[in-house]
Amino acid sequence: MPEWPFRLEKRPAPSRAMRAGAPLIAAGAMLITGSIVFAALGQSPLGALYLFFVEPIASVYGSGELLLKATPLMLCALGLALGFRSNVWNIGAEGQLTMGAIVGGGVALFWAESLGMWVLPGALLAGVLGGMAWAAIPAFLRTRFHTSEILVSLMLVYIAQLWLAYLLHGSWRDPEGFNFPQSKAFEDAAMLMPLGEGVRVTSAFIMALVLAALSWIFASKTFAGYRMLVAGLAPAAAAYAGFSEKKNIWLALLIGGGAAGLAGVCEVVGPIGRLQQGISPGYGFAAIIVAFVGRLHPLGIVLASLLMSLLYLGGESVQLSLQLPSAVTGLFQGALLFYLLAADLFVTYRIRTARREPARRAAEPEAVPPPA
Amino acid sequence: MSATSASVPRLTMRGIVKRYPTTVANDGVDLTVRVGEIHALIGENGAGKSTLMKIAYGVTRPDEGTITWEGREVSIASPAEARRLGIGMVFQHFALFETLTVAENIALALDEKVAPAALADRIREVSARYGLPVDPHRLTHSMSVGERQRVEIVRCLLQSPRLLIMDEPTSVLTPQAVLRLFETLRRLAGEGVSILYISHKLEEIRSLCHTATILRGGKVAGTADPTRQSSADLARLMVGAEIAECRPAPREPGPVRLALRGFTKQSWDPFGTTLREVDLQVRSGEIVGIAGVSGNGQKELLASISGETPGCDGGSIEICDTPAEKLLPAERRALGLAFVPEERLGRGAVPALSLAHNALLTGARAGMVRSGFVRAEAAGEFARETIAAFKVKCGDETSPAESLSGGNLQKFIVGRETRLDPKVMVVAQPTWGVDVGAAQLIHQALVDLRNRGVAVLVVSEELEELFTLCDRIAVIAQGRLSVLQPTETLSVEQVGVLMGGATSDAGSVPAGVAAHA
Questions:
Q1: What is the pTM of this model?
Q2: Hey, what domains does chain B have and what are their CATH numbers?
Q3: Total structural domains in chain A?
């Protein structure tokens, strides 16, 4: 039987270079896959890639869109990454985002007059609390009944979206909105204003960057961040040291939910301007990919959210100019995660060719003298 | 390594080399096992014993070297091939399915397909012939560790091996069970079966083995006739240096620091052991030892004392006169408790984190955290001092815990807990899998703590260790603790009888069943 000439060998220590390089390798492999798909669809791969990755951000407006779409991705991913690092698998950021939009949007809709100039801070705070409250459900169920936060947080996504639909078809519907399932437009006082002329990106992007810096400080400098890290790396060591597992779960889910809620409310009081269906094209789910592509590190997440945002824009661009289906965006996202997970294997393993392993038969002359 | 005249050696390994990315596990090892010989393979942890055995059993392949089996050069590609040649191996950790019967477990492990029912008679026959009583229809989860080992041995013997490899077989047995195992092994050797016996218990090797090959750092350090060498001589060959044993001088103990009174607690683990009315007092300035075969309630007792499983179903725990049975681990640490768990990687230390970050694991109160922020330089300094004081071999305080050898990591953990200035120190298996040099240093650290007035509790399966170290010893069996007695009034035989308890190897009441009665 001919032997496979390659074998995997565990590295003596995980490779730092590979850990940083894996996202780049994954991005490269994603581009190659994309070219093949474009070629198979009868398009010139280079032209299509240009339309996908360069054309969308060639203008000031386009660059603004890049930051605009990166904002909710970054916010959700920062919160999720803290949880993922500590072994809490909140995959329901999309639901927490929706609930943040509902609660924050509700404040903007109904309390605009009574709150006066405080309506915008009130709406943002309400959005954070709404996301937290939605994330508190899996936290309570996990700590009290040992349910899986993965399943609970995922199922709550659909419940949150149905709540939004219920409100928009019912009592929150704009009476002058020709029966469209959407609310009245928010007052200007309740809105986040664009950062400049000709762009739609708002100060939410600045908030996201500040949160990235805070989350870096929390994760690397505080004892609470250290406890969460230990809980993720070695749960038995956390129990041994007396770090409370319940506190960790609550903290991870509340932070993740709060960040996703903020992302949701910033969308509705920002570019959207009202409550409507389809406030997010799956930002909460894409943020899971962003968190991992960004190596669960705040700086990495900032960069990864820009990449993911570009994938959204590129998908729209090729949809418009090449009449390709919108599934192209999902394909690129999926390919990126898939290649990242594959590339991650080489952080702890390396490939050796069989030639380097001397044969069992020591009688044969050695081609390569063994190192002393 | 003298060649016997009459017969061809059963197994000869020549110039075996096995390289791993970071170490050379075997570096030109020669080994000859004759027919009917009980051959000891001894050496410290990391000396290369396990690698050599894995090569002989076809689990791993050597990078260089030849293996000759009964005069014929062979290449052993897999354990199945090893078994076809007539090599059997009894592993240190038994891979038995708890919910299956003995016969079903054995049927699964055999290379030929045999119905468990047809197997029962053969199992009875083999077990009767070699004095290894095993009931083929018994469920495995109800068996003691000694009985499980017997199942493993019977499984090997069913294939009529001509070479039996045993990896630290006595580490889980009571002294009485060890004697019975030796009877069996001698009988097998008398029938011409060769036995390769891996151990670090020198006394056992002296009473059982005909020849000993000593490995040190992946090389053969010598061969010896263990019946004619003293344990000290063998130890010297193993370590390459003189070993000084520390035996604490008598000392008047102080007030009680750790007290369990009538402590009763159901295990969280369905196959675990319920603790029943455990009474235990550890006084300032004494070392108390708890002996016992593993799985008799040690892990439940330790988790109850550390606070990892707080609460109880009766009785009390007091740490420094404060009721503590309901307190969480951090609160118990605040009372002055320090704890070295049995599992070093993953419980006592976080594998992927640096030693400095591992100092922070339990050292937060020692000035490494200020108003919620980690003081990295304080943690680093604590780690550096621990590394220096306990002679931990590692890169520096930024090395990840997983890069240390077991013995060095244990030194670091014992050092960390010691330097947190505890009033009560609880240590589980302090020197399990630790080389002789590190073991001596750890023992000395525990004796120093005792002499400083700390109450020290040691839970260990190594009787030799407990008898050298402890002022008083109790035995845990089936979740019950015997009365503490001064070490000098006890003999190894007495402790052995207590260790057997009602779970004696005649196999009357298994621990698991008793727990659920």
A1: 0.76
A2: 11-239 (3.40.50.300), 256-336+422-516 (3.40.50.300)
A3: 1
